[in-house]
Specification:
heterodimer; A: mainly alpha; 7 helices; B: alpha+beta; 6-stranded antiparallel beta barrel; 6-stranded antiparallel barrel; 12 strands; about 35% helix
């Protein structure tokens, strides 16, 4: 089961990375919107912080090593994205998950731009990060609308379901 | 908002520390250069494959915002295309003119006469005949009534009328025109009567003349024809002998009367001191 989940995670990372390079980046232009980041948020919202941070770190590291900026920037920010979205995962409605994912992705994109500006890489600037925040949130929300239900469907599949129930599946009933 | 467990907090801190280590290593030098190159190479192949599939979709989406401006760009490119096609056609026409002038120069060399190049500017009935063309050369260029006209390969006709800047040529393909011709194989003299685009009918003066398919006809010896002698008229393609023993031959013309463009007027005995420069035979001084 764990092996199958790892293979599925790697396939998902490669698929969204390819879609990001071939479709999203050319269309989005200079907007720092990232489909892998949206997937990290969706996975964290569906499976919790532990899975989210691991998935975010691996996806970020692959994206870092495949790009020209210093490795570690996206691994750092997407790990934080996985942690935050995992902490926010409380089995809420689809709409709330979409809004959470979009907000997390937009803030992560801005944080990545600021971090790149700090290390003087890629022509990023703090002002650009602030300026792109709102349009980045809109695009991330649109992508989340498609990815949140898709990720939920995949991770709730019996073949990919976590071996032990994740915390967001535990419902505490107050019998008092 | 849920709290992280202790193990999750430790894991998160470990991952963040690892990411910072990567960042430090990569900023500090080229420690991760090999890893960068390897992952870039692997992802590059993946991206190329994906782009092959999704490229048309991406280009369609990217083209939507500029659909209006693309139309104006298409118009500009169409205009440029038309201009380039025009230049291409002009270049082809220039090459054709060059070839025709070279052929006319050969005609000047072979006849020993100066040849005035002239462009056909009108084609149609005139002067009571059916097959005439109008040339853009006239008396100012040395053109006179009765002079022979050639396309460099064969006989075209003779000048019927000439004014200062243009002249009318009666094509030898005209049904009312007869050309004194000679069979180059047998030397038999006869009259080639025009039949328009169909060519000529050659009627030898000697009814018993042995004309054969493939015989070449040329304008007759000087004095027996109104044309310059030894200009090619055509080739015999069929021979018919009537009941009374008269022989007639069908002749395909050397110079097609329906494809005339640049022709040359053989300036016999005239001077064109005020007009354009004529082609002079090789060895003689070029000029007017």
């Amino acid at each position: 089961m764990r092996y199958l989940r790892s293979v599925a995670a790697l396939a998902a990372i490669l698929t969204v990375s390819a879609l990001q390079a071939a479709l999203i980046s050319p269309i989005a232009g200079s907007l720092p919107v990232s489909l892998p980041a949206v997937l990290v948020a969706c996975v964290a919202l569906a499976d919790g912080a532990a899975v989210g941070m691991t998935f975010g770190f691996i996806a970020g590291l692959i994206a870092d090593l495949g790009s020209s900026h210093p490795a570690g920037v996206l691994a750092l920010t997407w790990t934080c994205l996985g942690v935050v979205c995992g902490m926010a995962a409380t089995a809420r409605s689809l709409r709330e998950d979409v809004l959470t994912a979009a907000t997390g992705v937009a803030l992560t994109g801005a944080a990545s731009s600021v971090l790149l500006a700090v290390v003087h890489s890629g022509g990023a600037s703090t002002w650009g990060a602030i300026r792109d925040l709102a349009p980045c949130w809109v695009v991330a929300a649109a992508l989340s609308c498609a990815l949140v239900p898709l990720t939920r469907a995949f991770l709730n599949n019996s073949a990919l379901r976590a071996a032990h129930p994740v915390l967001n599946e535990v419902r505490v009933v107050n019998r008092g | 908002m849920r709290q992280l467990t202790r193990r999750q907090r430790i894991a998160a801190l470990a991952l963040i520390a690892t990411a910072l280590c990567f960042l430090t290593l990569d900023l500090g030098g080229g420690a991760l250069r090999t890893a960068h190159n390897g992952v870039r190479g692997a992802l590059g192949s993946l991206y190329r494959g994906t782009d092959g599939v999704l490229g048309p979709v991406r280009r369609f989406v990217q083209g939507i915002p500029s659909a209006g401006s693309n139309q104006s760009r298409v118009d500009v490119l169409r205009h440029e295309n038309a201009v380039l096609r025009g230049e291409l056609a002009a270049a082809a026409a220039d090459r054709s003119t060059h070839d025709q002038l070279a052929t006319l120069q050969l005609a000047a060399d072979s006849t020993g006469m100066r040849v005035m190049p002239a462009r056909v500017i009108a084609l149609g009935p005139g002067q009571g005949f059916d097959w005439t063309v109008t040339l853009d050369a006239g008396t100012a260029d040395g053109v006179r009534v009765g002079q022979s006209v050639t396309d460099g390969d064969g006989l075209v006709g003779r000048v019927l009328h000439a004014d200062r800047s243009s002249s009318v040529v009666l094509l030898c393909a005209d049904p009312g025109s007869g050309v004194g011709a000679r069979d180059l194989r047998t030397g038999q003299i006869g009259v080639a009567t025009g039949h328009g685009a169909a060519g000529f009918t050659f009627l030898p003066l000697n009814p018993a003349a042995k004309i054969q398919v493939g015989d070449h006809l040329a304008t007759g010896p000087t004095g027996s024809t109104s044309y310059v002698s030894d200009l090619s008229v055509g080739v015999v393609i069929s021979v018919r002998t009537s009941a009374d023993g008269t022989t007639r031959a069908d002749v395909v013309p050397t110079a097609s009367p329906t494809a005339l463009d640049l022709v040359g007027v053989l300036l016999a005995g005239t001077d064109n001191s005020t007009g354009r420069v004529a082609l002079a035979p090789a060895g003689s001084p070029a000029g007017r």
